[in-house]
């Protein structure tokens, strides 16, 4: 049975991975309290003791605005942590699957971003995630970086759950409409990582490197919110739909800058692994789960 070490087991993707993997693999899932990935000796101890075939790193500092004022913490978790995992994994010849982000790009491209396009993060979060990518690829020759975007799930804090909460509380919402990208369901990210992980068990040659995986079709936050509310109303989750107004990013200032274009080109992962984009609209067909989960 494939031995998998899962870090960040209490995040959106981590919780989903745990649900899908606990009876399919010899799984060791650890949260932040159980393994601080910034502590090199603890990382080495758990990896050298458990000896996983595959490590899936779902741990990250994802508070985009807070990262602007907590640079050292963001860098420790998003760069040093993955570096520690990559170095230890290399020593036991383990595969490392690492999750990254669309925020490594500046969003100025008029086209969807390919894996080979120039990175230029415009936030501390994006910069530290890019540093993590570089460290992983430098330290482990058997690693895959999976860049994704606009993650939502039943777990944690995300746009879908926030919209449902605000929809119950407010009569009107202003939603940014000039940032385009792709919502991505965490369950589909988990399925993608699991498919890649199990290819190694079948002794298939895995083409390592950077891959983009996200939802499709592309949209903006305003249109995303409209679909969330329409589905919630049709499924009797909300009695009424709040009035939503489109606004520009300039009208909704945030501490950290966001890319205006977060669209990721998805051809490479389809060609190499036969993995289709996340069908985010289908993931919104059962809205009740986003209300009932914590």
Automatic annotation (TrEMBL):
GO terms for molecular function: dTDP-4-dehydrorhamnose reductase activity. One of its GO terms (cellular component) is cytosol. Pfam families: RmlD_sub_bind. Residues 3-287 form the RmlD-like substrate binding domain. Binds 1 Mg(2+) ion per monomer. InterPro entries: dTDP_dehydrorham_reduct, NAD(P)-bd_dom_sf, RmlD-like-bd. Its cofactor is Mg(2+). Pathway: Carbohydrate biosynthesis; dTDP-L-rhamnose biosynthesis. Coiled coil: none annotated. GO terms for biological process: dTDP-rhamnose biosynthetic process; O antigen biosynthetic process. Keywords: NADP, Oxidoreductase. Signal peptide: none annotated. Its EC number is 1.1.1.133. It catalyses: dTDP-beta-L-rhamnose + NADP(+) = dTDP-4-dehydro-beta-L-rhamnose + NADPH + H(+). Belongs to the dTDP-4-dehydrorhamnose reductase family. Catalyzes the reduction of dTDP-6-deoxy-L-lyxo-4-hexulose to yield dTDP-L-rhamnose. This is dTDP-4-dehydrorhamnose reductase. It comes from Pasteurella multocida. The gene is rmlD.
């Amino acid at each position: 049975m494939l031995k998998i070490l899962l870090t960040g087991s209490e995040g959106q993707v981590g919780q989903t991975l745990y649900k899908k993997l606990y009876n399919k693999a010899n799984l060791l899932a650890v949260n932040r309290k159980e393994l601080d990935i910034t502590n090199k000796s603890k990382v080495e101890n758990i990896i050298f003791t458990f000896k996983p075939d595959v490590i899936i790193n779902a741990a990250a500092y994802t508070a985009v605005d807070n990262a602007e004022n907590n640079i050292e913490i963001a860098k420790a978790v998003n760069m040093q942590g993955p570096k520690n995992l990559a170095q230890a994994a290399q020593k036991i010849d383990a595969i490392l699957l690492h999750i990254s982000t669309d925020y490594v790009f500046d969003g100025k491209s008029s086209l969807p971003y390919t894996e080979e396009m120039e990175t230029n993060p415009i936030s501390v979060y994006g910069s530290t995630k890019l540093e993590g990518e570089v460290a992983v690829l430098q330290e482990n020759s058997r690693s895959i970086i999976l860049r994704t975007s606009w993650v939502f799930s039943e777990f944690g804090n995300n746009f879908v759950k926030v919209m449902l909460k605000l929809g119950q509380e407010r009569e009107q919402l202003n939603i940014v409409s000039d940032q385009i990208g792709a919502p991505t369901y965490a369950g589909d990210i988990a399925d993608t990582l699991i498919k890649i992980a199990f290819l190694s068990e079948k002794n298939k040659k895995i083409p390592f490197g950077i891959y983009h995986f996200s939802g499709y079709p592309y949209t903006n936050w305003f249109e995303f919110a409209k679909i969330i509310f329409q589905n919630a109303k049709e499924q009797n989750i909300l009695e009424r739909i709040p009035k939503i107004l489109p606004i520009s990013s300039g009208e909704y200032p945030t501490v950290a800058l966001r890319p205006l274009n977060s669209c990721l080109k998805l051809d490479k992962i389809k060609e190499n692994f036969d993995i289709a984009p996340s069908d985010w609209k289908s993931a919104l067909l059962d809205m009740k789960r986003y209300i009932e989960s914590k």
